[in-house]
Amino acid sequence: MALVVRRSARISSSIQVTQIPSTSSTTTLAEEITKPRKRKRSTLSIADEPVLDGVASASSSSIISPGVQTAEKHIAVKTRKRNHVRPVTASLEDYPSRAVNDWKIGAHVSAAGGVENAIHNAAAVGANAFALFLKSQRKWLSPDVTDESVKLFKSRMQEFNYSPRHVLPHGSYLINLGNPDLEKREKSFECFLDDLQRCEKLGLMLYNFHPGSTVGAATRDESIKHIADCLNRAHKLTTNVVTVIENMAGAGNIIGSKFTEIASIIEQVEDKARVGVCLDTCHMFAAGYDIRTKEVYESSISLFDEEIGLSYLRGMHLNDSKTPLGSKKDRHENIGLGHIDLRAFSHIVTDPRLKDIPLILETPIFDSPSVWKKEIEILNRLSLIRSADVEVGVEDAGDGESDVVFEEMVREVKEEVAVFAAKKEAKAGKAGKKKRKKAEREDEGEDGSCDEPL
Ligand SMILES: [Zn+2]
Ligand SMILES: [Zn+2]
User: In the annotation, is 306 catalytic?
Assistant: First the structure.
């Protein structure tokens, strides 16, 4: 696949995505930009698109970005839950071509109906990386992953060209390895270990989790020691999966909002090759680490490097924030629509230190993954435009032209969100209070904000 940036019309349709043999992924951005356009024509008409999976539930004109003209086809069967569908026979060419980009942008997609379905859901939104829950994130016990699921997951990873390096499973919200209560901590540990074993069965190498909480019953140092002890035990009971600690927003007793707390956990981990960090932009912003201007972004990343070490950074969660800097609140917002600003994300998706790690959206989607599809497309476009600007010597964002580009991108996200937010509101209005509450609960996690552990 190759990606061609048409600079002459870069605001309205900057990116053309087309499929060419995958060996081209080693070409440079400059080569990609100058390559002649070769587009694979699809015989599918818009009317052929099945209306399934939320992705295709909008009119095609609103979900296919201006420059991406590959038709989509989602072959799926509906399961009992209304918004959950199980794709069965779709193959790579049934999905939109993915951007060729060294920054691996994706989303935390649904694994409803089996972990193997996450791969279809990632492909459907054009994701080059993805996150998933390996089991119900709100239950202590879940049925084992079946051999059939493992087989399908592995074969689809190959078929859809996803590398385990770019898959970042997210741990259960119930897990609290910092709990001073031994019995409760052991229950968490079992659930944690079970997740790691699932990763290994699926051939995955990263596992992202929330460090934990003192629950108000221990000092922070005591909880940090419990977390590190659990990691050491888990590393001995598994072979190679890397336990990736997520930074937190800083509410109450939760560990991990300060880089120094994460560093203390790592310091006590015996096998340093088995531990990493996932940096959530909403959480770091809420915890007081500013990334809005290039200057403050650089100093926050330098601080991370100084206090933890960039070599530990194994992934990021790209979320804007509904609340201001230092609010300590964990409220995810769509890219460009919150307090962080789209410019901050442009620093990330052009930072050479952040290449080749999963960059995962956990933003609200209002029942429609096509919101992620739009955000992924915008971030890829931003990444390629800004990288190209840097290559040809156009300096940092802030000049008039850049402002227009940013404003236009924010408008596109806003429009996409507005369509589905209105649809969801109308649906919730019809469905009574009880149902509305249930829908809100289901939203948290995959696309909302993170919970405080028990
Ligand atoms: Zn969060
Ligand atoms: Zn998280």
Answer: no
Given a contact cutoff of 8 angstroms between Cβ atoms, the answer to whether 76 and 90 are in contact is yes
Instruction: Give dist(CA 358, CA 354) in Å, integer.
Output: 9
Q: Reply yes or no on whether 138 is catalytic.
A: yes
User: Is 210 tagged catalytic?
Assistant: yes
Alpha carbon 56 to chain centroid, angstroms: 20
Q: Known catalytic residue: 246?
A: yes
Q: Which domains can be identified in the chain, with CATH numbers?
A: 82-443 (3.20.20.150)
Say how many Å lie between the CA of residue 123 and the centre of ligand 1.
23
The 10s digit of each residue's pLDDT in 358-416 is 999 999 999 889 999 999 999 999 999 877 776 666 655 445 567 888 999 999 999 99
pLDDT in tens, 281-290: 999 999 999 9
CA dihedral (189, 192, 194, 200) positive or negative: negative
* CA 230–ligand 2 middle distance (angstroms): 18
**Could you confirm whether 200 is annotated as catalytic?**
no
Quote the tokens at residue 226: 């419990």
In our burial notation (b when 16+ CB lie closer than 10 A, e otherwise), range 79-103 reads eeeebbbbbeebeeebbbbbbbbbb
Residues with CB under 5 A from ligand 2 (ion): 246, 450
DSSP string, 376-436: HHHHHHHHHHHHHHHHTT---BTBHHHHHHHHHHHHHHHHHHHHHHHHHHHHHHHTHHHHH
Ligand 1 center–CA 21 separation, angstroms: 37
The region of weakest confidence among 36-40, 173-177, 354-358, 370-374 is: 36-40
CA angle 243, 248, 250 (to 5 degrees): 150
